[in-house]
């Protein structure tokens, strides 16, 4: 009887630990997603502030661009590296859905926040040219991998 009580007590203890671990993991995922969303908003705002400071138009948000930027981040995370793989296909799909004539993108990874990512892009001639280019719409996707490293894709079009 005592052995059975010890076993039941041990079983309840293990179940409690297992459920706590799952909750902690779920909370960590929610926090990472919320942080990524904050970084997206911050980067979108920083890019627009920079453009306006130069006398350029503020870019409008595009849900279509966001969808493709998000998919590309998932792809880069699966490959564990940044790339412009399949850009022509993405650009064609965005053009056909929005009637645009020109699409561009910036990608990055491992920056800790929106300011760092923006500075990294501004330190690159080609990325800076894209940010300051003749575009009307954009969207930024930021996703975290399993190690909580951030991946960034910003798509621009006109």
Automatic annotation (TrEMBL):
**Cited Pfam families:** CAP
- Annotated SCP domain residues: 46-156
SUPFAM superfamilies on file: PR-1-like (SSF55797)
- Give the InterPro entries listed for this entry: CAP_dom (IPR014044), CAP_sf (IPR035940)
Q: Which Gene3D superfamilies match?
A: CAP
Q: What is this protein called?
A: SCP domain-containing protein
Q: Which organism is it from?
A: hydrothermal vent metagenome
